[in-house]
Amino acid sequence: MCNSPQYDSIITEVVSVREHVSSITKELRHLVVLVDTDQHSLNELARMIIWSLVFGISHISFYDITGELQKKEDKLFFEVEKQKKGIPGCIKWSKMPNLNGYTNGIHANTIFVNILSYNDGRPKLTKCIQEISRNTMLCEKSLDEYTSQELDWTFKSKYPLIPDPNLVLYTGPLCCTYGLLPWHIRFGK
Q1: Which cofactor does the UniProt annotation name (predicted)?
Q2: How far apart are the first and last CA of the chain?
Q3: Radius of gyration (Cα) for the chain, nearest Å?
Q4: At CA 174, angle to CA 169 and CA 178, rounded to 5?
Q5: Which end of the chain is more exposed for a tag (fewer CB within 10 A), N or C?
Q6: CA–CA distance from 178 to each of 33, 52, 118 (Å)?
């Protein structure tokens, strides 16, 4: 085991999170964090992933408002791996499937990490609707019009399987969603 001050700090934080898990009454399945890389370091984001893993949150999404975090996703991965040593759990990265790993022989939580941006919102939704209208996307329809269930199925085939957020966190001087999809805001607190 490592005895560096940073390692001792993360272990202390993990112990604190574990102590408070039982006091939470609502299940938190998906946490969304609006990330401004000018305000948040990779170290802080890595710690949020580890805390969420220990807490039992199954999905964490970082909504990258500057576009810089998506460019640094591999650095965030290595920062998480550096800090996670000795903490049981499986962290799966949506855009880096070859880097997914499991904790062997230990029952532990699994968390899926997504890094999203504006382009994963309205522009992707618009492209999906355009593909449906041009009949270039496979979409089953039972009538001449699409039902909401048929559109929902089509969107789910285009988007990764991510549950609606239970909690959306933002920091900074403005309360702004930066293009986070409206139905995500409606479900999140």
Answers
A1: Mg(2+)
A2: 38
A3: 19
A4: 65
A5: N
A6: 12, 23, 8
- How far is Cα 177 from Cα 138, in angstroms, rounded to an integer? 32
Question: In angstroms, rounded to a whole number, what is the distance separating the alpha carbons of residues 142 and 126?
Answer: 22
Other C-beta atoms closer than 10 Å to the C-beta of 183 total: 10
Is the Cα dihedral 52, 57, 59, 65 positive or negative? negative
Q: Please name which of 17, 6, 63 lies closest in space to residue 40, comparing C-alpha atoms.
A: 63
Query: Would you write out the chain's pLDDT as a tens digit for each of its 189 residues?
Result: 455 555 567 778 877 777 777 777 778 888 888 888 788 899 999 999 998 998 889 999 998 888 889 899 999 999 998 888 888 888 888 877 665 555 555 567 889 999 988 877 777 777 777 777 777 666 666 566 767 776 677 777 766 677 878 888 887 666 766 667 655 555 444
Question: Dihedral (C-alpha) 35, 30, 156, 176: value to the nearest 10 degrees?
Answer: -40
Cα separation, 51 vs 31, whole angstroms: 11
Burial class (CB in 10 A: 0-12, 13-18, 19+), 111: buried
For the chain, give the number of residues: 189
- Tell me the two tokens of residue 108: 């532990």
Which pair of structure tokens corresponds to residue 187?
């479900």
